[in-house]
């Protein structure tokens, strides 16, 4: 009978992240609880909050229903056209913050397209599962950004 691997503690974060990279690279994982389970199988004890930090540190994105590594997270050919169907709404939130709502699981893919566009209006983006915050320098930059977003996403 095969013995289960001895769980490693959280102090080996770099090694755990490398194991996480291998698991995600093999594909098909879309939930953090599955990552916790799969890491446990290879001897790493982790919580969903530690997995969340690891995913952020590794730059992992959610593409559709699965996690992908940064090098594999390239949006489908077509940039904005490839992700336009995922954008549901664009709204200002104060003078220098714009909120973009997307389909569930699509925010990171849309944010990658925005980041790679290199628009001067965008100071930065922060994405969750279905929401993206886009920071702009001021209200004028925000107006230009929203006009571009409406043009590309037709919302």
Q: Can you describe this structure?
A:
The chain has 6 helices and 6 strands, in the order αααββαββαββα. With 155 residues, it is an alpha+beta fold. The chain has 2 domains: 10-72, Arc Repressor Mutant, subunit A (Orthogonal Bundle), CATH 1.10.10.10; 80-153, 2-Layer Sandwich (Gyrase A, domain 2), CATH 3.30.1360. A 4-stranded antiparallel sheet has the order 3-4-6-5, with helices on one face. It has a two-stranded antiparallel ribbon with strand order 1-2. The longest helix has 15 residues, at 139-153. It is elongated and about 50 Å long. The relative contact order is 0.12. The model has no long low-confidence stretch (mean pLDDT 85).
Short account of what is shown:
The chain contains six helices and six strands.
Which helices and strands, and how do they pair?
Elements: H1 13-26, H2 32-41, H3 48-58, E1 61-63, E2 66-68, H4 80-83, E3 87-92, E4 97-102, H5 107-117, E5 124-127, E6 131-135, H6 139-153
Antiparallel strand pairs: 1-2, 3-4, 4-6, 5-6
Mean pLDDT: 85
User: In what order do the strands lie side by side in the largest sheet?
Assistant: 3-4-6-5
The main pleated sheet reads as: 4 strands, antiparallel
Helicity, as a percent range: 40-55%
Strand content: 15-25%
Feature tags:
155 residues, alpha+beta, Arc Repressor Mutant, subunit A, Gyrase A, domain 2, four-stranded antiparallel sheet, two-stranded antiparallel ribbon, 6 helices, 42% helix, elongated
């Amino acid at each position: 009978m095969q013995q289960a691997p001895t769980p490693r503690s959280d102090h080996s974060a770099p090694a755990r992240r490398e194991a996480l990279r291998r698991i995600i690279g093999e594909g098909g994982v879309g939930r953090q609880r599955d990552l916790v389970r799969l890491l446990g199988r290879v001897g790493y004890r982790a919580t969903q909050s530690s997995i969340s930090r690891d995913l952020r540190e590794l730059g992992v994105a959610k593409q559709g229903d699965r996690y992908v590594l940064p090098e594999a997270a390239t949006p489908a050919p077509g940039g904005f056209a490839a992700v336009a169907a995922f954008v549901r709404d664009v709204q200002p939130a104060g003078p220098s913050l714009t909120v973009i709502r997307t389909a569930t699981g699509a925010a990171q893919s849309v944010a990658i397209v925005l980041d790679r566009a290199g628009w001067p209006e965008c100071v930065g983006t922060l994405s969750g599962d279905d929401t993206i915050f886009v920071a702009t320098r001021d209200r004028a930059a925000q107006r230009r950004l929203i006009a571009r977003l409406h043009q590309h996403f037709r919302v």
